[in-house]
């Protein structure tokens, strides 16, 4: 890595220290004052102090910086002589005579200091005169800030001088002292004795704590120049660094060597494989060098144990190490062996295995106490001791010779094996590190199965992936473990490494067809569901079905999976044939869970298509399920039905299915299924108008699932729809691409149709009508090929409007007729509402305003009954604007311009004719509804029509003054400024003139007390 990259990665902003910054700044600007800044190494004491000193409020003050150093023979008062030398060329004239006592120590200032006084014989008198000289020189400066860092390394003379200065400080002096409490000598008092607050002095203690997960994410983003960091990655970094800023910066520096943050792919594997940053490794080595042999032994044992452990366990693992063997003399081991020898103390850990007491228990306790006081180990509670963060553990562990590590791991295995129940995951870890492959295989396989039964699929997958990575595995063991892994991974969220491992095993390992078929089937489902690679997943599943011809149960499961209509562009009939084949393989003796799975997929298929008869069987099946396996299938069915009924517009039923599915998925331990249902929950919330906090929920889900596209597609779609409602076209395009449009061949069909409908609206709003028409034709063709027309509800109104805007009225009419026929016998209220909106668009295009009004009002009523308030308001707006455009005195009729609000065209009619006031009132009410939802562009469009007709839209609570607070309109402008929009773009989104936007931006900058657009915070 080049030095320029290293410089770039320094944190450009102070993160997570707002309160501490204000406290310190307040103290420094109210002298005389003393600020004690306390915190462990790397916590950010220096950064906080420097940032505070650079604040505008500190201008005009002298700032003198000094620091103590860990010298064996420190020079008395050295930090003060260092900081006073910084006055070279700035020493005030006419100093008191006592300042001459500084001449021998500050030759750089000699010409500006009074003559040196007569020498004194008494040491205490000389010291007192020197202290008075320092105080007099500092007092002559007026407003001055004296900083002494790392006070824990101060010599006694420096501490005495600090106490002298702060007991009677000069009136203009502010003092800042920083230190690490764990490194303070003696009683742990920074000044050597208790500090007593002098009268008239501002005194503050500022303890710095580790950053929380949110602040870790913010600091990582600041270091890398990114706008945000995935929450899961922030949590991983927080766990690894304990929230210590220095450690975090070092970790991010290390990751930068591999291209971080491109794609934010630094998962746990990448973090675990990282080397310990050099500065941290050296710091731990320094701390270890200061420990006695018993303390070193327990720290090494704790490093091998990896996780916090009890005193007894640490002592047992450390028994026999240098300083803990209980033997007389200077030889570390009773048999004379040294560290790294395989004889003597190791001896297969005989004393532990035989239940005899281990040696050195008392020494171990003393060693732990010493290590804790030295800040190497930490008391984490419940008589358990461990390291501050994993990197500290890694630094110590990495310093151990391999033979010593293996010996300590064997001791840990022997001790842990006697526990009841045995900690299988820990035993597997120690077996692997000890080089005992048979024990590793035995404990690892058992640990994975136990984790899967407990619903902790992530742990099961991680263990099995590790086992399968061993090149020395026997073929039979590899096939067995691969089957285990495929079963665990298919219901979890971690899939990337599992997919690669299973692919290699399926292609290159010898095994029976039935075993290969099951592994391939689960691989296909992983690709289907988690990876979002529909085409490859379907191909693998079809091959697996053939490989499982001698295993009808698993073959039926594969066929049922191939009957899920959401994926792919096949016609409905293809999915129907697969589910029929699956049902033919079922018998009365078939596994009940399998029967539930197959029947559930069939009813899901029918419900997705809107067949009314599906309801009765759906209600029957969701009430079934006795065993865990059966309840898992009911959970899956409930989630599928929630998805299907959300697309149909049966929102009350969707909520009921969602609730049941979420509860059962949690009980059965299926994080993937929980995520799928969470995605449906987001779309359901958007549909019913529950938009408050919805974007944050969607982003959290995206962060949580880390690329599981079958789940994240829902979240991206919702974010895209919200962005469209706000008129943020670039964000909308980005999110809609991520949801489906970027890879339509591997996108869920209903999400793809909805994303196309939203994207058409973006194209129309931008005036790119040919792009809108092309997307409309592609999307309609996909729905036609699929032959599930109910999934066109979010597509058809905008697609028809786009065709009309391009003069393709006949094509639009043909598409609507086809759509009407496709939903004619279906129970799909959302599709019925969309059909009414389509009829309104066509009537308006043909100049039949009365019919258009009736159709839009019918659509609005149907949407409202679902309820779907946003769509209802848009249809109602279209009806109002059709009436505004209707022919009348002084009013021109429509000229095929499009579907009023649905087509993105502002009505041109006036409100001054008969009924105009009523229409204006309706439009104003709709503007309020849009604003309440958060649909700022729609609200602005309504207000623009009203303004164009001379109608104002005051707040229902009356106009108010906002003073220094942002008004609602200014908040909208500030948000768009923070997103990087130009004034012209903001004017387009909010239907304002550029001049008006310019005035709003000026007010935003003034009220937020910033000088540039780049400083406007995104949360405004």
Automatic annotation (TrEMBL):
It comes from the Bacteria. Residues 326-358 are annotated as: Disordered. Residues 337-353 have a biased composition (Gly residues). TPR repeats lie at residues 713-746. PROSITE patterns: HTH_LUXR_2 (PS50043), TPR (PS50005). SUPFAM superfamilies: C-terminal effector domain of the bipartite response regulators, P-loop containing nucleoside triphosphate hydrolases, TPR-like. GO terms for biological process: regulation of DNA-templated transcription. GO terms for molecular function: adenylate cyclase activity; ATP binding; DNA binding. InterPro entries: AAA_16, P-loop_NTPase, Sig_transdc_resp-reg_C-effctor, TPR-like_helical_dom_sf, TPR_rpt, Tscrpt_reg_LuxR_C, WH-like_DNA-bd_sf. Coiled coil: none annotated. Keywords: ATP-binding, Nucleotide-binding, TPR repeat. Residues 959-1020 form the HTH luxR-type domain. GO terms for cellular component: cytoplasm. PANTHER family: TESTICULAR SOLUBLE ADENYLYL CYCLASE (PTHR16305), TRANSCRIPTIONAL ACTIVATOR DOMAIN (PTHR16305:SF35). This is AAA family ATPase.
């Amino acid at each position: 890595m080049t030095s320029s990259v290293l410089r770039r990665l320094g944190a450009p902003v102070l993160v997570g220290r707002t309160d501490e910054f204000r406290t310190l700044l307040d103290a420094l600007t109210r002298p005389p004052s003393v600020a004690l800044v306390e915190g462990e190494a790397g916590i950010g004491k220096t950064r906080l102090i420097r940032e505070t000193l650079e604040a505008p409020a500190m201008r005009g003050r002298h700032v003198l910086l000094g620091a103590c150093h860990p010298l064996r023979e420190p020079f008395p008062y050295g930090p003060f002589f260092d900081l006073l030398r910084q006055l070279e060329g700035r020493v005030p004239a006419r100093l008191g005579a006592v300042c001459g006592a500084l001449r021998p120590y500050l030759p750089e200032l000699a010409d500006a200091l009074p003559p040196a006084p007569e020498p004194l014989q008494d040491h205490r008198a000389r010291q007192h005169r020197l202290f008075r000289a320092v105080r007099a020189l500092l007092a002559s400066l007026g407003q001055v800030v004296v900083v002494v860092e790392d006070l824990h390394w101060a010599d006694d003379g420096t501490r005495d001088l600090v106490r002298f200065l702060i007991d009677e400080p000069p009136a203009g002096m502010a003092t800042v002292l920083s230190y690490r409490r764990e490194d303070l000598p003696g009683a742990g008092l920074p000044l050597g004795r208790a500090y007593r607050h002098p009268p008239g002095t501002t005194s503050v203690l500022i303890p710095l704590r580790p950053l929380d997960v949110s602040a870790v994410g913010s600091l990582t983003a600041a270091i890398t120049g990114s706008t945000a960091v995935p929450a899961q990655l922030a949590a991983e970094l927080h766990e690894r660094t304990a929230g210590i800023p220095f450690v975090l910066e070092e970790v991010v520096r290390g990751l930068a060597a591999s291209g971080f943050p491109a794609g934010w792919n630094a998962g746990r594997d990448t973090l675990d494989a990282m080397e310990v940053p050099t500065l941290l490794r050296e710091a731990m080595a320094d701390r270890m060098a200061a420990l006695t042999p018993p303390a070193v032994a327990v720290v090494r044992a704790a490093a091998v144990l990896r996780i916090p452990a009890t005193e007894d366990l640490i002592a047992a693992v450390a028994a026999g190490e240098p300083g803990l063997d209980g033997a007389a003399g200077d030889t570390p081991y009773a048999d004379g062996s040294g560290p790294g020898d395989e004889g003597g103390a190791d001896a297969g850990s005989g004393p532990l295995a035989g239940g005899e007491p281990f040696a050195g228990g008392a020494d171990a306790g003393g060693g732990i106490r010493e290590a804790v006081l030295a800040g190497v180990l930490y008391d984490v509670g419940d008589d358990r001791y461990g390291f501050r963060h994993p990197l500290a553990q890694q630094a110590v562990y990495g310093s151990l010779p391999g033979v010593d590590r293996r010996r300590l791991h064997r001791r840990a295995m022997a001790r842990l094996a006697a526990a009841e129940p045995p900690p299988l995951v820990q035993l597997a870890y120690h077996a692997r590190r000890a080089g005992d492959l048979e024990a590793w295989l035995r404990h690892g396989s058992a640990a994975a199965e136990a984790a899967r039964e407990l619903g902790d699929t992530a742990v099961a997958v991680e263990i099995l992936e590790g086992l399968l990575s061993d090149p020395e595995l026997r073929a039979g063991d590899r096939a067995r473990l691969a089957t285990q892994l495929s079963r665990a991974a298919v219901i979890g969220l971690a899939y990337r490494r599992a997919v690669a491992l299973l692919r290699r095993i399926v292609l290159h390992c010898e095994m029976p067809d039935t075993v290969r078929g099951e592994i391939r089937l689960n691989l296909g489902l992983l690709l289907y569901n988690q990876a979002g690679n529909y085409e490859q997943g379907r191909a693998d599943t079809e091959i697996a079905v053939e490989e499982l011809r001698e295993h009808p149960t698993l073959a039926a499961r594969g066929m049922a999976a191939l009957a899920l209509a959401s994926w792919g562009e096949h016609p409905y009939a293809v999915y129907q044939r697969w589910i029929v084949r699956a049902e033919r393989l079922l018998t009365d003796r078939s596994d009940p869970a399998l029967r539930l799975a197959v029947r559930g997929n069939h009813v899901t298929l029918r419900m997705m298509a809107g067949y009314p008869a599906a309801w009765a069987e759906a209600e029957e099946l969701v009430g079934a399920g006795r065993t865990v396996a059966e309840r898992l299938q009911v959970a899956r069915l409930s989630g599928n039905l929630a998805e299907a009924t959300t697309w149909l517009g049966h929102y009350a039923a969707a909520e009921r299915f969602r609730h049941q599915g979420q509860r059962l998925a949690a009980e059965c331990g299926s994080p993937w299924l929980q995520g799928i249902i969470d995605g449906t929950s987001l779309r359901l919330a958007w549909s019913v108008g529950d938009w408050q906090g919805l974007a944050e929920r969607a982003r959290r889900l995206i962060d949580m699932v880390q690329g599981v596209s079958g789940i994240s597609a829902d979240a991206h779609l919702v974010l895209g729809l919200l962005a469209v409602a706000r008129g943020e076209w670039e964000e909308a395009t980005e999110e809609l691409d991520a949801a489906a449009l970027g890879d339509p061949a591997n996108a869920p069909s209903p999400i793809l149709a909805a994303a196309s409908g939203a994207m058409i609206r973006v194209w129309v709003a931008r005036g790119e009508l040919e792009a809108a028409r092309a997307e409309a034709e592609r999307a309609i063709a996909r729905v036609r090929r699929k032959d599930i027309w109910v999934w066109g509800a979010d597509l058809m109104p905008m697609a028809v409007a786009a065709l009309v805007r391009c003069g393709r009225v006949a094509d639009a009419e043909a598409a609507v007729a086809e759509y009407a026929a496709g939903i004619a016998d279906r129970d799909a209220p959302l599709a019925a509402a969309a059909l009414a909106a389509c009829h309104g668009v066509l009537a308006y295009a043909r100049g039949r305003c009365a019919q258009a009004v009736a159709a839009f009002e019918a659509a609005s009523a149907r949407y409202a009954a679902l309820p779907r308030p946003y769509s209802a308001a848009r249809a109602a707006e279209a009806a109002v604007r059709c009436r505004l455009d209707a022919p009348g005195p002084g009013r021109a009729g429509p000229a095929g311009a499009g579907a009023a609000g649905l087509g993105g065209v502002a009505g041109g009619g006036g409100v001054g004719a008969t009924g105009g006031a009523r229409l204006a009132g309706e439009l104003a009410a709709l503007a309020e509804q849009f604003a309440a939802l958060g649909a700022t562009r729609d609200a602005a469009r309504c207000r623009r029509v009203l303004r164009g007709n001379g109608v104002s839209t005051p707040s229902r609570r009356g106009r108010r003054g906002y003073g220094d607070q942002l008004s609602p309109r200014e908040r909208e402008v500030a948000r768009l400024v923070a997103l990087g929009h130009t004034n012209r773009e903001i004017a387009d989104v909010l239907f304002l003139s550029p001049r008006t936007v310019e005035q709003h931006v000026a007010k935003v900058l003034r009220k937020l007390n910033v000088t540039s657009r780049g400083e406007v915070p995104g949360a405004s």
